[in-house]
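cache lookup: miss for this entity combination. No prior model stored, computing from scratch. Input as submitted by user K.M.:
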Amino acid sequence: MYAFRASLMSWKFGAAAVLAAVLLLCGAGDARAQATREYAIKAAFLYKFGDFIIWPSAGPEFRVCVFGHDPFGPALDGVVAGERVGERPVVVARHASFQGGEACDVAYLGGLPAAELRTALTALRADAVLTVTDEATNGEIRGIVHFALRQNRVRFYIDTAQVKENGLTVRSNLLELAILDQKRGATQGTAKAYAWKQASPHARKRA
Amino acid sequence: MKRRRLSENARLRSGMITLLAYAGSCSVATADQADVLRELRALSITELANLEVTSVSRRPESLRLAARNVFVVTSEEISRSGVATVPQALALAPNLQVAGVGAGTHAITARGLNIPSAASANKLLVLVDGRTVYTPLYSGVYWDAQNIPVEDIERIEVLSGPGGTLWGANAVNGVINITTKKASPGERSLTLRGGTFEYGANARQTFSLSDTAALRVYGNAFDRAHSETPTGARAFDSWRNLQTGFRLDLSREAGEATVQGDFYTGYTQPKALTAAPRIGGGNLLGRWVQNYDSSTLQVSAYYDRSERYVSTGIKDGLDTAEITLQQNITLSDTHQAVWGASYRMHHDRFTPGPGTSFLDPASHTMHLASLYGESTLTLNDIFRAAFGLKLESNSYTGIEYLPNARLSADLSPTNAVWLSVARAIRMPSRFDRDIRNPGIIAGGTDFQSETVWTYEAGYRTEPLDAVHLSATVFYNQYGRLRTVERAPAGVLPLSVGNGMEGHSYGAEGWANLGLNPGWRVSVGGNYLVKRLRLKPGSRDFFGLGFAGNDPSYQVSIRSYSRLSSALDLYVGLRAVDDLPQPAVADYVEADATLTWRVSDAISVALTGLNLLHGRHTEFVLNGIAPLAVSRSGYVTLRTSF
């Protein structure tokens, strides 16, 4: 009992000393402005979509473009640093406005004003670009992927008809994560029905 | 003996040096959110879609929990520490005393009074998604039946101290709230676990039914190894369990609805294959939440059925049904209120074995109805006061009152102190009232609820961004504690009475230290002094130890570190003081888990439990040969796809 207490004391003091030292050495955290967690998560999605979408052709780099206001800040550069989609390194390009002709695999259009956003979406129709919009800033104007907060989580709609029109192919596991949109589904084919068609025979059996 | 202590010290010291080595990399703390981003990179797209947007670093806490002593075990801690069972997860809370007894048996309490006569404290209320899981047979919890898959646990709130005003009877020394995760579309995982501790498997899949509805189903099975006697002989108490369940979540305009259920069967393998102890049961729960402009209305109801074959011939069946209505209202900027009403029914069927004590009546229906309200007033920039009262009526003792008053002061944005006074009760169990065996024990026809008045003071601070400290002191004034009384003349027949009273006091505290974005350390401990005595006129038979067999203190230090983008290390050390009666030696033990995230979808974890000794005893039940908790380990393979 006493031996136990003594040994306990010695390691307790040891632990206290270590923690004190660490705290003194490290100091307080950095108070630098940071992208919100919501946009850090969205930033991670932007390049991770690359693993679930098949583009008809691939350049040497996987290009993520941010148009208009940039809500990500350094978080986007930080999250893609050193990452690859397939063999292609991920690079970020920022454009203050949409001009047309920018080389992008993924185009985040969430920061564009409504009129410019409509122009961009029309212009990018039939281009092999994954257009991404955001319910938080764009409301009901939707690109192929439309971010939306649901149950405190970042989720997204996928417009499967537009996917086809842009010449892209979506893997079924991404569609499974998408929010199903029954209202639009009637005309565009629901994500679920599309997933069924795209799924491998093995996956179909499981379903 | 002395040599062993020294080697223990040496091990501890080497552990400290390792910790110090990680601390060397703390310059990262002043970098930026690089590590948060690295974590995001490491997640699969499914995991990304299931991340909560509000920060995980700040411990979630609602108004209801303010000015109380609550520790929250998060799903991240559960996953990083590699735990396989609910009791293991509870042991992560520094304000609980968790002791292993046998393969499926645990003794778990807060602030002491872990009764040695049954394998569970009887003054702790445990809820799973709002469903009460203690048994009215003896007011304890059958931990072997609480096999909620750890993969599905969102968080565990551990409240130490009374919670009767909101939670009702039995929330005397603490309340454990286990919350499972909402069904999130796309979640699909398979977990396989194998080693000397247990072999187990868990499969879960979530289906997206529509834009607003998701359904998760799971299957869970395990075969837990026999425990050992202190000399290393097999104890023949291995435990097998099969369980399946589902959770359906619907989000609606300004509200949500949930339907969930679990079904299980479990059995042990005794040495002689006669009437193997086994359990079975299920539950079904529905909850409907509607948000209005300044209020939230919640209605929930559940039905729970369980069967237990204790040993030769003894069978205990229980049906529980409860309906609860609760409304949270914001009356003004400075005034929040909650009120609710609930009704619960327990119906049990007890089949006695030959020659054993039995219950009279063998079957009994108990009703419990309550009405409660609590008001929280913000008095000024600094002070907040809360007053609440529950009136609860039970079939045994009629109307009981459970008041609570709290005052908290925000001394600064990062410093708060609080005071609380509350009364709580443990209402009579079936054993207290109805245990009868002619000539031996004559029940407790006059047994009243055990009561406590608790006075608490707490202090919380966040001196730095990622540093949280919490300290609480408490004083419990117990009245009418249970005793087994001798007959007025002689000894037999015994009867159950309220012959004990007294007080306890102590302290609890913990510190969560985010040393750098990749390393967090949680240090905690509790200290308890009991001063119990027999009331004048008591002819107590068993002695004061009958009320609880508790360590005077325990301390723990847990480290969650990220060694690289693919490797996590968890190390937990705990020290627990000796127990007086039945005597159990003090011990220091360590657990560790090394997790390798092979890819977005696959992780492999190696877990070692109780690494410092081959075996040690943590808790002994009266009249049952001591069992030991053994050093053990397992590998966990987790795939999500």
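stored under new cache key. Confidence is low (pLDDT under 50) at residues 1-32, 55-65 of chain B.
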